[in-house]
Amino acid sequence: MELNTKTKSLAKVQTHLVAECFNKLYIGGEFVDPIDGEKYPTYYPATGELLHEFPRGKANDVESAIAAANAAWAEGTWAGMPAASRAEIVAKMAQGIEDNLEMLAEIEAADVGKPYRQAAKGMGGAAGEGKYWCSLGKALDAEQDVPVNSGGGEGGVPPSEWNVVYRRDPIGVIGLISAWNYPMNVAFRKVAPALVAGNCAILKPSEIAGLSCMFIGKLAQDAGIPPGVFNVVTGDGEAGAALAASPGVSMISFTGSTLTGSKIMGACAQKLSQVALELGGKSALVVFDDTDLDKAVETTMKGFLTNGGQICTAHTRLIVQESIKSPLLKKLKEELEKLPFCTDPITEKDRGDRAWEDGMTDVVQPIVCDSQHKKIMGFLHEAKRAGVEFLTGGNVPDAETVGNSGGYFIQPTVLINVERDADVWQKEVFGPVLSVRSFSTEQEAVLEANSTAFGLASTVMSADPAKAMRVANRIRAGAVYATSNGEGLLAEHPAVSRGGFGCSGIGREKGIIGLHEYTELKSVNYTGFSLADAKK
Ligand code: NAD
User: Which residues are catalytic, by number?
Assistant: First the structure.
């Protein structure tokens, strides 16, 4: 039988997935089958066809991985190496991502349903960020045995008979639990700093889309990471919960929803272990009436449609100054209704989502899976029932519009005059859904922007730099953007730390502060000899 184009592209990705690393757990330096032998299916979001079945690790597999990691931790070789030497090894893993970029990007395009070009850009970002973490190995070594600093406070210098230095120790065995929307980026952003800092780790990727993360086990093996120092257990919430609850795990670094983050924090509270939580958001785009209309529309589209709205920093609340609300919404509706659907993300190499490159969002990708599709449609049905006004969208596109693909598509949707207490204003929908409110004064704009429990990111657009910065400084969010033209929206840099206020998280990722999250600060008092004597 002649395969259609989409099935052909899927078949190509499936040839990558026959490799051992995509079919086994990685524990103690070896690829192993899950103890109960169960598998989990994952589907191509653009067509709903079966993409792959990967091992379903359960609590018993998690226990084996924790035992392997604790054995490596007790043996101590990895933690005992200078951070710069560890970084040289982890850098080989980052290079491995770059060397396999096309294959990994095709896998993510098929697994998440994101256009290939965007997947490739994300994969390049993961490799680049990994190299950045490795470049910090020397910086971490330079932070060992540093004399105590009074911080400028009076009376803060220890008495002269005391000799005190600070060290940054690894924490121990760390559970890394990641989300599906940018699988490799989210996972490697945890793996690289955790290992460079000297910890042993177990990665538990998302069951919704985590195939690319399974390759990190192979990268670790090829790079020569000692057995047990790094492990990968694929599985669902059961495996994640077992990792979080185990007394053999000293820290959980988690990226995912606020609900799960709260459960993880509860589990860690029982044993007082560390947590770093990168959670959901409901970011605001505040547009003042001196903003160029076309730029405002472009920025709005990029803000809520990048990765199909499935991005933690998606700007899903538009807060527009009353005086330009009508023309802005008119143009937004026109532009959104022109957007084509991306019916074969794997082959979307030429058009793709150019959001990261030139600010344009030119294609609508499918939702990652059936359950997320149902969840988003649930929000829309409830909004309809509650009488929320729809400017555009709100439905599944008809089969013809999406080439009879059978994929999990939703029309880009704009809800207007939304009440402040409505679910679609307060909750993270995680799909192509924008809620709009308006303001008259600067003070109202700030109140609107700060009117949810989240605080991950937000953007202010104005031609007046002083106003843009003033308002940005009053928004309670871990990353704010002030811009006259929308440039840089959603931009991230490995050296720039970010994280959430409120329900968006605890702790910071990236930058030297992000590396410190994987260490414990220790003071060492020494008397009766000099530090130089101790280092002879
Ligand atoms: P999720 O919370 O459903 O799942 C995340 C991970 O947690 C998965 O690996 C899952 O298997 C695991 N898990 C589920 N239940 C668990 C439990 N009880 N104990 C331990 N682990 C458990 O989130 P998701 O749907 O995979 O991801 C989307 C969410 O992630 C969105 O809220 C998004 O905003 C957020 N996110 C945040 C950032 C950030 O940097 N702040 C980045 C990407 C995604």
Answer: 278, 312
